[in-house]
Amino acid sequence: MSDEHKETGGYDKIDSYLLGRDIDGLYNYMQGKQGRETLLCNMLEIWSLEKAQGMRTIFYNVFSYEEAIRKYDIIDKIMGVIVHKQELSLPIIQFIEREISVWAMIGWTLTNQWGVRQIEALEAIGSFLKERHYDSGVIAVHEGICKKTFQKELSEALAHGDGYLALKLLAKISDSEQKEVLVKKAKDSIRQVEQRMQGRLYTPTNMEKIGEYYMIVDCWHDRVLYSRELCEIKDWSSLDSNLQHPHSICREKGIYAVENTEAGTVCFYKKKESFVKIGELPVGRRPHRILYDEKREMFWALMGESQEIFGIKVVNASIELPFRQKIEELQSSYVRSMRIIDGRFYIVSGPGNILELSFAKDKFVVEHKYAVPPEYFSMNDMIYFQGYFWISVYQNREYEKMPALLRLPSLNDFGTERCVDLYGTLGMKGIPYFFSWVDGKLCIPEIDTYSRIVLYDAKDGELKVNRVLYDFGKAELSDIVYSHRNDIDVREYILGTM
Predict the structure, then answer these.
(1) What is the mean pLDDT of the chain?
(2) Counting Cβ atoms within 10 Å, is residue 317 exposed (0-12), middle (13-18) or buried (19+)?
(3) For tag attachment on the chain, is the N or C end more exposed, with fewer CB atoms within 10 Å?
(4) Is the dihedral of CA 326, 389, 383, 420 positive or negative?
(5) Average confidence (pLDDT) over 185-199
């Protein structure tokens, strides 16, 4: 329940509209509240489409806000199954026939899908209807309408050098002489983008010195790089360039581990003549930090989105998953890093608290919670040295970007003068991310708004810039285009950066 509705009795008002079957009144009331009540607003958009066709099936037998949301959840799940072309059980098919009209299917597609994905969803629903001898003519009409909008999106994609999106759009457009020319133009744009990004970093989340190799996790370029020398980025080799937003890397006994964040897996590599991938393990939602625990001979992987910790062992090149635990105290918050400090495990906020955990008898137990102020609500990483905790911060309580680099002697010192923000003093420009030690220097990469990697001398609790290793400034259009090459939505974010 949102604070707004708690304060104003908004749920009572929503229920009064539902009880009175005054859906028009509810529709008008919800205008402007989409940010708080997305599910209900999407459902009302579907209802407005159905109303235009003289149908009102979506609010069938709904008498409360909770039931209304449940109704939408059911539609959402069914449509997800149809779009992914999975088999539906007979009771589900009967439910669709009884309570969900074609217009509800269309409404779900138009309010939940964008760009090429919208067409693919319509095509999948059309196939579903044809297989069951339902009328799919109305789907074809909407496919035609969506395809017409592709012409504008195609022109914008080509104008901005986004060959990836252009090819996806062209694949849905009828063949013509012009199409062949446009495909060639799109492929030329892709070559230019990839040539440009090879020599740049875009959101380098982690740099490590592992054995003889320097390694950089180039997160938004979807790759991990390695080199024996600190040379130009274009001269580094790629450990793997087919990852999806990796965040960190670690090694033990010749085995390297990297998260494949968007794919929900952890990848493992071994160095032979070159780096060879020896396995990939499915884990939870968005693995965000991987570290090695020497005491337990275990890789720990922290899930950013599902609030789980996975314990992974590699035995004779066999990847095993002996441990998994959801940390309930994280609630539903997104978390980015876990550290082992003096035998204790720390998970940064997160849920407005830093958690300190112990591990015994194959179980994590939360021993302490350290509340953090709203301005430091969403953190990136934490280490401890020279008598201080050092913490990198991303966002405040409202999820606005508010970068900070904190130094404090105790985790009870938030909100006191002993908690010092060194971000401005050190002249940082981006979001400070994962800490590491490289050639005896503290390494802090900066991401998102500005991409660079800086080494610091650390002495007596003070930091001094030793060397700026790489500075690529704000993202170029080629960076953004490449990082979203696998997306099939309309690129409104690219237009917003220009």
Answers:
(1) 90
(2) exposed
(3) C
(4) positive
(5) 96
Residue 5 binned pLDDT confidence (cut-offs 50, 70, 90): very low
In the prediction, which pLDDT does 130 show? 87
> Are β-strands 318-326 and 308-315 bridged in parallel, bridged antiparallel, or unpaired?
antiparallel
> Which DSSP helix (H) or strand (E) runs through 106?
helix 102-112
CA end-to-end distance (rounded Å), the chain: 37
Residue 423 CB-density burial (10 A; 0-12 exposed, 13-18 middle, 19+ buried): middle
Instruction: Please answer whether residues 208 and 250 qualify as being in contact, where contact means their C-beta atoms are separated by less than 8 angstroms.
Output: yes
Give the HSE-up count for residue 443: Cα atoms under 13 Å, Cβ half-sphere: 20
Structure tokens at 214: 């320097």
Cβ contacts of 349 within 8 Å, gap of 6 or more:
333, 335, 372, 376, 377, 378, 379
Give the model confidence (pLDDT) of 67-115 as tens digits: 888 888 888 888 989 988 888 888 888 888 888 888 888 888 888 888 7
Average pLDDT over residues 160-185: 89
Is 357's pLDDT higher than 80? yes
Residue 424: how many other CB atoms lie within 10 Å: 10
The candidate with the shortest Cα–Cα distance to 4, out of 32, 36, 41, 42, is: 36
Give the rounded distance of the alpha carbon of 372 from its chain centre: 23
Task: Give the C-alpha separation, 216 to 230, whole Å.
Answer: 11
DSSP 280-306: EEE-SSSEEEEEEETTTTEEEEEETTT
